[in-house]
Amino acid sequence: MEFLTTKNEPLKTNKMNVPTMADMMAQGKQPEVLFWVGAAGSFDDRAKKITRAFVKILHQANVDFAVLGTEESSTGDAAKRAGNEFLFQMQAMMNIEVLNGYEVKTIVTCDPHSFNTLKNEYPSLGGKYEVFHHTQYIKKLIADGRLSINDSVLKNKKVTFHDPCYLGRANDEYESPRDLIKRLGVNLTEMKRNKSTALCCGAGGAQMFKEPEKGDKDINVLRTEDALATKPEIIATGCPYCNTMMTDGVKFKEKEAEVQVLDIAELIAQANEL
Question: What residues make up the domain containing 46?
C-alpha cells in the first residue's frame, strides 16, 4: 500500500492525506466511512491509479474517511470461490475482529468482489456493516449535494460500460455506474450483452491467474470484441480485475492507441480535473 500508509502515520503523496483507523482512534475520532482498498487497489500498479482517483474524489467531497492500512487483509473471497471454506472463515473472522474493534459502521470499496463478500457473507459471521460499491457511494455524494461532476471535459466521448459480475448479477446494481457515466456528458453505447446478460471478463473465473483451458478463444478477448463492436474511445469498468482483463483484450486486438480502459472513478477524477 505504498501510497496509503505506514503503520500509524498517514503518508502525504501528491497532496493526498490518507489516515488509518489507528490514527483516527488515537485522536479519539470516528470517520464517517472506512475505505476498503482491497488486494488489487493496494498492490497492483494499474489498480493503484483507481485507488488514487477515488481518494481524490473523497477529498473533493470533504469525506471524513480512513483506511485500515497494514491491518487490512484479504476478505477471503478468493479462498471461498476456490472452495476453501475453512480458510475463508479464518480470514473473514480476522477482519471482522478488526472492523468491530474499530466500531466500523460503513464501508466503501472499489472492488466488487470485496463489496459482495463484505455485504453478503460477513453478516452471518458477525460482521454487519453498510457496504457501498464506490459508484453507489459517489452517486450518494452527488445526491447529498457534496459532489458535482463537470460534464464538459469528456463531452461527446464515445463510451461503453462493462458490468462487473459481482456488482451486476450478484448484487443487482446496474444503474449507479450508468448514472455516473451519463453525468460525464459522454455518449454511452451499450454492448449487445449488457446488464443481466453481460458476459464475464474472465477474472471472476480465475482466468486472470492462469492459462485458459483449451477452447476457441480467451473469454476476455471475446468480451473485448463485444466492447469494440460499439466503436468506443473508452471502455469504462467498475472493477480493478475487469480493468486488467479488458486492457489485456484491447492489447491483444492491438487497439491500445485508440481505446482506453478506465474505471469510473478515474473518469470522474479526469472530468473534475483532480
Answer: 12-143
